[in-house]
Amino acid sequence: MSAPFEERSGVVPCGTPWGRWYQTLEEVFIEVRVPPGTRAKDVRCSLQSRHIALAVKGQEVLQGKLFDSTITDEGTWTLEDRKLIRIILMKTNRDAGNCWTSLLENEYAADPWVQDQMQRKLTLERFQRENPGFDFSGAEISGNYTKGGPDFSSLEK
Question: Can you give the residue ranges of the CS domain (predicted)?
């Protein structure tokens, strides 16, 4: 079995003071650097459909209303090597036109260049799903790719 599209094509991260976040068609990934030696019992993480709250050792790290809705029951967090918290959120709206421009409604926005790269990647990921026999991981895209690019689904095959 081949690697998922995002692993072959790389990620387009948006840096933040606490780490970074990035997205695929289906998921939003959040990576938070924490002090080395952090234990799971030091972490308080609440994942709701439109809200996230993360505190480490009683200090709020991340809290607010998410840019868009997620599936609450499918959100997870893990503590890796006692120095990184990885949060995975499952998007409710999973089409290429749903490119989050920021992690929270008014915070951690991707700069215009990063936003453009994120949208390009999601559009290529959509093309990969629609054409499973082709490898788009090294492809470049130009032209109309905003909102997920052109819709070719009505064309005859």
Answer: 14-104
pLDDT digits (tens, 9 = 90+) for 12-58: 999 999 999 999 999 999 999 999 999 999 999 999 999 999 999 99
Where do the domains of the chain lie?
5-130
Residue 74 · residue 55 · CB < 8 Å: no
Classify domain 5-130 by CATH architecture. Sandwich (2.60)
Phi, psi angles (nearest 5°) of residue 50 = -125, 15
d(CA 8, CA 31): 19
Cα separation, 20 vs 24, in Å, equals: 14
| Distance from C-alpha of 91 to C-alpha of 103, rounded to nearest angstrom | 12
pTM for the model: 0.84
Label residue 147 left, alpha or beta by phi (over 0 means left) and psi (-120 to 50 means alpha). left
Per residue in 68-119, pLDDT (tens digit) is 999 999 999 999 999 999 999 999 998 777 899 999 999 999 999 998 888 8
Q: CA–CA separation, 28 vs 13, rounded Å?
A: 11
